[in-house]
Input
Amino acid sequence: MSQFTVWSFPTRILFGAGVVGQTGGEARRLGATRALVVTDKGVVRSGLLEPVAASLRGAGLEVAVFDDVLGNPVEKNVHDGVAAFRDARADLVVALGGGSPLDVGKLVRLGVHHDRPLVDYDDATGGDRFITSDVPPMLAIPTTAGTGSEVGRSGVVTLDVNHRKTVIFSPRLLANAALLDPEMTRSMPAFLTAATGFDALTHCLEAYVAKGDHPMADGIALEGIRLAAAHLERAVSHGDDLEARGGMMKAAMMGAVAFQKGLGACHSLAHPLSSECGLHHGLANALCLPAVVAFNVAAAAPRLARVAALLGAPEDAAACAEAVRALRARVGLAAGLEKAGVPAGKLDALADLAAQDACHTCNPRPCSRDDLRRLYEASFAG
Output
């Protein structure tokens, strides 16, 4: 039996190498008898579904699998997942994978007993008021270390009605338990490790400098930044290092807890890059974060100075953007939207979408649509 730790903050969190073997016991703890595993085809091909399904079956549960989740989820993924849940007569969602299957898993459980169009639940329009506690239970098992969605209160999906990445948020979407097993991330390729790791770092950094007073989120965000700075390079270069893998899983988890305070302009820039250009969300954040950090120095200098120091630079806000660029280079990510294949001709349309994204409303320095356009320009060459 694996050695693992149990935390509650407020999600029940089981952490440790081999802890995925506890999936069946956690399902039984919730009184479940039939599980729908929501995942993607990459997770299935990698063999990561097998220990989860074996643990569930070993505990006496029937197991069905829905693996049609896209890398940037669309509304159809949610509706198809709800249909699969009903067809299986399931009473438990087990979301397995990176941020996309975890987000879709939350929205599948929402859709089981909530009949409104998904756009009605948009957090930007107060859609959480329509979300009740009538959702089936869910276990979350991450296979990446980036979004922290396993402990998050939201799902992100591109909706049919507006073709925009939309956040659906409610504490009622929190998983009943999250199982964080570093062994489930050890086969993650270097690029994906770097990109998802930068997503975790961006969550922590943007939450820390976001507007508002939330000392608990600030403290968690700072520790998440420290963990990412300490472990990301090692996780990229030595994928079998379970200490580094575990450190990044902690950083991702902490970023998702911290950003209940808010995010910022970087996420508003990143969301359209995924929905319109197909960029991995973590890569989109990595490409835009230095420009956003430089933009925010005028409004958040003391905090950015502290972040710079955690990243190994002088404790000077002016050094923070370059520290982010240097880390991005050390983990092998592209420098600039141009190298990532984003056409210059799309920047105006991207800026229009970024301005509609609610994340930038928490940015420490107010930013207009034209500011967001200039941040894309600043990110274009790197």
In short: The radius of gyration is 19 Å. The longest helix spans residues 281-310. The chain has two domains: 5-184, 190-380. The chain is about 50% helix and 10% strand.
